[in-house]
Design brief:
Length: 306
């Protein structure tokens, strides 16, 4: 068995907030509590949404929380050659085809497709094409992966899980407008390169897992185990965002709230503490358990006690 390796994979598309921190904490504790490694990857291929200075800030946020990692951080945009090799292999296997459908489809594939961003099922308009047809096209195209089945998987948190991809999106984009790799391909190639054996992320990405399992299988790569945890929500029940006010980690620092107070709140929300009180991430290692994490979203109300 390969050594246990978890990962933290933030995107420099904005400030890291309380919801990001909760998922990172769970991922970090899951690996570290079993003496595993933690890899760090900066997922910056969503070039339209990257923010200046966000990369440095997310590194600062993780360090402030006390979440360390092993080795050098991988920068996703620097892995293009590996992404291209994977695409070429999928072309050789005729598992992809050039698609000239709408720009909105192409743009939507640039980043992780959170549940609220999942579009309608692709109707297979361009599925009759072969890889060779790309040479005859006179307008921009993307590469779509042919979905033949939907692999079930055993989620570390949710248990047995199955998503019917033919009803939930269908054939999906792997490469956008012949220029940039899309999320699904890049994350598979990069997790394999970093020897990641465990992926912990929000449950809005459950539908991404069978897509990625298809890619692991097609590329002859060993897939990691997956765990999808509930998101943090505002008082309106929606996924935490700018509209919910000052929930950025940088805002908490600016208000003098300690990292230990933030960690304590998150630990309480996961059922590891009886009340929200300051604690470090390392002090939580012996307390980590999957079965105490509530199934519903954690709703943020009020301020964090310091």
């Amino acid at each position: 068995m390969p050594p246990l390796t978890g990962r933290l994979a933030p995107s420099p598309t904005g400030s890291q907030h309380l919801g990001n921190a909760r998922t990172y904490l769970i991922a970090w504790l899951s690996a570290r509590s079993r003496e595993g490694r933690v890899a760090l990857r900066i997922e910056d291929i969503d070039v339209w949404r990257n923010r200046p200075g966000a990369k440095d800030q997310l590194i600062e946020d993780l360090s402030w929380l006390g979440l360390d990692w092993d080795g050098e951080a991988m920068v996703q945009s620097e892995q293009r050659e590996a992404h291209e090799r994977a695409l070429e292999e999928l072309k050789r296997l005729e598992l992809v085809y050039p698609c000239t459908c709408t720009r909105s489809d192409i743009q939507a594939a640039s980043s992780a497709p959170h549940l609220e961003h999942e579009g309608p099922t692709y109707p297979g308009t361009c599925a009759h094409r072969t890889t060779a047809d790309a040479a005859t096209l006179t307008k921009p195209y993307s590469w779509r992966f042919r979905v033949a089945d939907s692999p079930p998987f055993d989620d570390l948190y949710l248990g047995a899980t199955h998503v019917d991809l033919r009803r939930a999106g269908g054939d999906f984009i792997l490469w956008r407008s012949m220029v940039h790799p899309a999320y699904q391909l890049a994350v598979v190639v990069d997790d394999a390169a970093q020897c990641v054996t465990e992926v912990v992320r929000g449950d809005d990405l459950v539908a991404s897992t069978p897509r990625q399992l298809l890619l692991y299988r097609a590329l002859g790569l060993a897939p990691p185990r997956f765990a999808h945890v509930p998101l943090v929500a505002g008082e309106d029940g929606l996924r935490l965002a700018k509209r919910h006010g000052a929930t950025k980690l940088a805002d908490y620092r600016a208000r003098g709230i300690s990292a230990e107070a933030v960690i304590g709140l998150l630990a309480w929300s996961c059922g590891w503490l009886a009340k929200a009180e300051p604690i470090t991430a390392r002090e939580l290692l012996p307390l980590f358990r999957w079965d105490t994490i509530p199934r519903e979203r954690f709703v943020v109300t009020g301020s964090i006690p310091n």
